[in-house]
Structures are given as C-alpha cells and as structure tokens.
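Summary for the funding panel

The consortium committed to producing paired sequence-structure records for every protein in the target list. Below we show the first two records in order, beginning with the earlier of the two.
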Amino acid sequence: MLQSMTGYGEAEGVLDGVSYAIELKAVNNRYLKTIIKLPDAAAYLEDDIDKELRRGLSRGTINCVLRLKSVSANALFELDETALRSVVAQLNQISSSVGVPGKIDLANLLNLPGMVRPVLPDEEAAARIRELAVKLTREAVERLKRMREVEGKFLEADLMGNCDAMAQELEVIRGRSGSVVGEYAKRLRRRVDELLAEAKLKLDEETLAREVAILADRSDISEEITRLDAHVQQFRQICRMEGQAGRRLDFLSQEMLREANTMASKAADAQIARSVVDIKCLIERLKEQIQNVE
C-alpha cells in the first residue's frame, strides 16, 4: 500500500508540572531531511528526537517542533539578577554623570541577551524528560504515518486510473499496428502507379516488396508495446506492495517514457501517433503524482 510523503502528527504529555507537545509536519523530499526546533532548555534532546524520526520515516522533509508550557506555578525561565542589577547600576551612573535624568524600564531590559535564562533540569530530571520526548515523538510519528496512509489510498487510486487509461491506449495501438504495413503497401503501390502511368512503365514487384519490408522493420513497435505493457503491470504490482515505493515507481515511469518516445519516433500512422501522445501525457501525470509517494 502506498503512503504519501505529506502529513501531520502530534503528541502531548505532562511531566513535573510542564506540558511537552511534539508537532510534526511532513512535505515532499527525494530523501529524508529533519528540521528540529527545540527550546533552549530542551536542546539536548535533538539527537534523540532525530534518531526516532529516522527510525520511523524514510522520505520527506520532516519539520519537528517541541513546545513547553508550565501547567503549575513553577517557572520555565529565571532572571539573571546579578546581570540585571549591573546593567541598572551602569545606567544610573551614566544618567548621573551626564546630568540627564532617565527612566529605566525593566521590561525592556529583559530583552537584552542573557537576562532571561531557561531553567535547566538536573541529570535525573533530564533523563525523565528524554524518555518522555522519545515516547511523544514515537506517538507523533505513528499518527503522521496513519495520515500518510489515508492520503496514500487516494494517490494509489489516481495512479491506478492512469495505468488503466494507458492500458486502453496500448490496446488501440496493438490493434492498429497490425494493419499499418498493409495500408502503407497499398498507398505506395497506388502512388507509384500514378507516377509511372504516364511513362507506361511497370512497377517491379520485388522492389515494391523490398520497400514495404524496410518500412515494416523500421516501424515495428511490437517490442515497445510488450515492454510498456509489462511496465504498466509492474507499476500496479509495486503500488500494492508494502514498504517504500516512490523511488522504484519513479524509475519505472522513466522507463515507460523511454518506450513511449521510441514508439513515437517509429510510428508511421496518425492514429498510433495520437495514442502515443495520450500515453505520454498519462506518464507525465504518473511522474507528477509519484513525487508525493514515500
């Protein structure tokens, strides 16, 4: 079953009066890329969260955000009182020395670097927080994967529909290709007879047969039809298999396009050419949708 690369997952838990919320957002990417944003107090969790993301996911850009919120009277941040007193003293000293009275706004002083520091947990608390963060990340990944599976069903239905349409066009081409050479021989004979009628010459049947044989060899697309049909069947099988399918489907769509281009260059019939154009359009739709498959 296919899985989409886009999705959303979240999980939340409370520990020691602090709420921890993990939020995951996934978008398309050829490889796996993780972008993790953590508060300063939880920066040490980055490696653990990254490992958990890579354990559960294989492709896509994963944006991970951890948010902390106190649900008790305990503060998550503390003031550097020594640094704050030092700044206030310096400002008062400067105000007195230049003779310009000024009003100090403590709220603005808190925006200075280093005035507000996160409350860092001790070793025992850090271990409990790490355990919770890994657990929440695992839960968020599972919810993300479930959402990917739901979207994957819609992707699979669309891809299968394009494969069905391609198979129909192949049947049209297969039925038409058998009569192309015979019609060409008739047109060639008629045209040559018209040109030679005035000269009262007779067409050499051996020469005509040789020209028809050359065209038959050059315009024979039976191998391309067989290979493209096999690619379509394999594409369907991969869509129904478990595990990663995006890269295999991407490679297979390239092979489909190669066969279609060969058929287009060899086609000696307008109806076949139209069907090949339709097939190439369907392949482009496949390629576009495959970019969303994990």
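The next record, for a separate protein in the list, is shown here:
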Amino acid sequence: MFPALSPDSVGLLEGLCTTRAIRRYLDEPIPDHVLRDIMFAATRAPSGSNRQPFRFIVLTDSPTAQRAKQLIATSAQQVWDAKRERDGYSEGSGADPNSPKARMADVMEQYVRNFADVPVLVLACLVRYRDPNPDEGASIYPACQNLLLAARALGYGGALTGFHSLVEKELCELLKIPDGVHISGCITLGKPVGNHGPVRRRRLDQLVFADAWEQAPPWAIDPPGTEHTAFKKFV
C-alpha cells in the first residue's frame, strides 16, 4: 500500500528558482511511491478547457522499457551530434576544455552516451482532439514542468528533451501508442550526481516589461543575492 504524499524537501519558490536540467544520475532506481508522487503532480497540471489530454508512459527496467530506451538513445546521439556541429560547440571558447561551453558539451556527450541507462524515462504524450496546431503544447508542457518540479521537491532531477523525434514511429509501434496520439516530450529522471542549484537566466528587467516593449518597471530588479545567476551566452 502506498503511503501518503511524500514531504517536500524544498519550498515552492526555492524549487522554481533551482530546478535545473539534470542530466547525470546515480545508478539507482526511483522507488515506486516516489514515482507515484511525481506523476500525480504531473497530472494535476492545467490544460485547455480542462480536457486533460496528457498521458505519460513511464519506462523503468522491463524488457520493453529497455528496448524503448535504446531506441531513443540512438536518436539522442544523432540529434546531439548534429546540434554540436551546427552550433559550433568545438569552436570559439569551446576549444578551451575548461570553458563553460566546453563543459556543457562534455555533459551533453555523457548524457547521450549513457541515455539507455537512465533510471526512468517518461514519454509525455498528447491525445489530439483537433488537427495539429501551434497552441497544443499549452495543454501538455505545464504537466511536464509539474513533473520536473515534483522531482526536484523529492530529491530527484530530470531533463525534458525531444530526443525521441527520429524514432517516434518505432516507439509508437513498440509501445502500442494509437493513432492520434503525439509524443510531445521525452523526460529523463533520476537521483542527481551533484546538486541542484540556482538556474541561470537573464536579468528580470530584460524579460519583464510594463505598458510597452522593453520598458521595464522600476520594481523589476533581481532579488538581493541572485546576481551570480546571470545568463551568459556561449561564444
């Protein structure tokens, strides 16, 4: 019998400001009752007209799950290889192995290389009730964010990717996903190697305006002590 919802390890606002993309995991499973709580939080998300068109396929260690993970791992390596070349991750500051750009590339390389061994892989699926349209993400991505925030609150971490994109047809066949259902995201989950920490974003006054474009209100100032979280673009 499952216990009641697990107690949060962080407050809501702290969780919002420290839920990084976690791509390195310890080699340990996520207990069933923790998965239950994470997925329960995901299913509490809002959706258009409260249709709740999101569905989640959770893949852990069954033979089918292992086959699906391997399929996506192959796709992940191909997608990352193309992005690394296209975005010049080995050029500019990326030529310095100690630069943030090079370290990011190294983390991504480890991530895709070990993708088949992640503890949990979640496919976020959208049951379409109309033709594909640019707004449909509004009915599934809030649920994905709920999932990641719940994982953070319970001491786990994850990353939302589109690495399934090259093998969606094969996945639908393997997992018996019916026509009319779209795989909108692929989320890895596990116990982090290392720690969560403040996310790096642009300053508040660069993102929040009042009354007109690029006119920041006087109160749009980053809270004291958060200056170190400033976003720096890789070059």
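Regarding this second record: The chain has two domains: 12-198, 200-235. Helices lie at 12-18, 32-42, 63-86, 100-113, 141-153, 168-175, 204-207.
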